[in-house]
Amino acid sequence: MNRLDAFKSIAAQASRGELTFPTSVDASLKLQQALSDPDCHIDDAAKLVQANPLLAARTVAIANSVAYNRSGNEIASVRAAVQRMGVRTLQSLVAALIVRQLGSSISDPLIKAKVAQLWEHTAHVAALAQVIARRVTKVDPDTALFSGIVHEVGGFYMLSRAAEFPGILDGEPEDWVEHGEQAIGRGVLTKLVIPEAVLASVEALWEGFRALPPENLGDTLLLANDLAPVASPLHESPGATSVQAARTIDCEIGEGTLNSIMAESAAEVKSLLAVLML
């Protein structure tokens, strides 16, 4: 089976909801569904998080990050962390856990390296998206964070299946962009029951049309993706936007500029990024 046929095969399965996840992902999906219940109380959410030591540690860490701890008062309990962040941010952390678990069973060094780079790219985009939402576009920061975390989930899923399809990583990045990214990504996002607003922002990223100054959630995600200092390994090519070119992106935002706002927010981005990379 050649590369394009492999993409089509995975995409067809994804469109039918026939997705193969590691056991750990299934457990995290159940947690995500529980948190999505509008009747899920803070105490219930805290108990669910405490059952997962890794998630519990990250929850407390992100609650103490610059992005959420404006007062400088550190907390040490999961319940206090959930109360500070809210269930919606907690859902983003669970989504991050799901995305990372997709690559947990990979043993091939080449694929593992791509998964590691893709997560580093994802973490940068998520952190930048949240700050851009809060400081520039004024869209909901929690939704922007969530969008950044899941925007490459189709790529993670493809990499988790790569060992089944020898040669799927060969060829040009354009093959993935044209024949795999949207078809597989949409199927995985649908299976994960991603909110419509988030799905629309990822679709805007696929289309690649961004307004300057950015205005909506799609623009927020696109700008964060452009500004991320680590590129997606699935999109790299000689013609890809370089980090140097990305740094030239600027526009007037109110009384300041995009570059000045991002410079002022560097500590916030760094703090959130550090938690996501744990």
From TrEMBL:
Coiled coil: none annotated. It comes from the Bacteria. Residues 21-208 form the HDOD domain. Gene3D superfamilies: Hypothetical protein af1432. InterPro entries: HDOD (IPR013976), RNase_Y/CdgJ (IPR052340). It holds the Pfam family HDOD. This is HDOD domain-containing protein.
